[in-house]
Amino acid sequence: MPQYDVHLNPGPMRETVPLVVLVQSSLFDGYRRRVVVPLVLRSSLPAGAKVVGTRMNPVFNIQGHTLVLHPLDMVSVSSEQLGPCVSSLADQGQVIADALDELLTRSWG
């Protein structure tokens, strides 16, 4: 599964998180699990949410929806739990990597 592919979220949160983006390197395709980051509908976040559009929470437009990357809710799921691939954010890979860097290496201040 290519890194930065966007999949439908078949889970119970699909109303507010319709899509997830695969962030795991293809080096680990032999494992049965995949690390994904939710893409949250901008409209489901509180008005004036200060995180939207920041380095950690970039905004993407996919399938007519404005979606916010939400790394704090990153999760590992079995590959069978992923819905179909509907898009790719490979051209935005560095933006996504920067968001994860902000979460993992800059959190100490």
Summarize the structure.
This protein has 109 residues and is mainly β.
Show the helix and strand layout.
Layout: E1 5-8, E2 19-22, E3 33-41, E4 59-62, E5 65-69, E6 75-78, E7 85-88, H1 93-105
Key terms:
about 110 residues; seven-stranded antiparallel beta sheet; globular
Number of beta-strand segments: 7
Strand content: 25-35%
**Which structural class is indicated by helix and strand composition?**
mainly beta
| Overall geometric form | globular
Instruction: Give start-end ranges of low-pLDDT stretches.
Output: none
Any idea what the radius of gyration is? 13 Å
What is the makeup of the main sheet? Answer: 7 strands, antiparallel
Which bin fits the share of residues in helices? 10-25%
- Termini separation: 34 Å
What is the string of SSEs from the N terminus onward?
EEEEEEEH
- Total helices: the number is 1
> Whole-number average pLDDT?
92
